Predict the 3D structure of the following.
Amino acid sequence: MTKTLEGQINAQDLKLAIVVSRFNSFITDRLLAGACDAFRRHGGDDDDRLTIIKTPGAFELPLTVQAAAKTGNYDAIIALGAIIRGDTPHFDHIAAESIKGLAQVTLATSVPVVYGVLTCDTVEQAINRAGTKSGNKGFEAAVTAMEMASLLKLIK
Ligand code: INI
């Protein structure tokens, strides 16, 4: 008999952390609002189970998420940021290090880490993904975090 494991999207019994960078805060504040909205709309009405942690920029996300993951206090961690291309290769370095670092943290700690970092060529692309034309990637990241937290509990 085949057994299928699939996580549920429900925040009721979950402890989540959102680690959000302040760089491009006019975008990341909207991603944060979307993630908090998703948590509350899925039964996460107890504010004790949602912790928000702020970093200066996306480059600081991996270390901060790692510190949060190592506490063992969170079923999943949502990393939010907005990296927007400028005139120099800086964008590419920050984008590469943030995704690589976060991927390392999730595998090393076995805590689900969800990547809600926008990497956009223009400010308009970022606005479109932070609650306007293309939805809110913070909301989507929180939904994925709930599913992954639930899935990992099922597997264990
Ligand atoms: N940080 C971001 O989160 N987004 C960006 O677009 C960005 N750009 O383009 O420079 C950015 N830089 C700051 C970086 O994340 C670090 O905070 C900084 O380099 C100090 O370590």
In short: The first strand starts at residue 16 and ends at 21. Residues 110 and 142 are 18 Å apart (CA to CA). The mean pLDDT is 97.
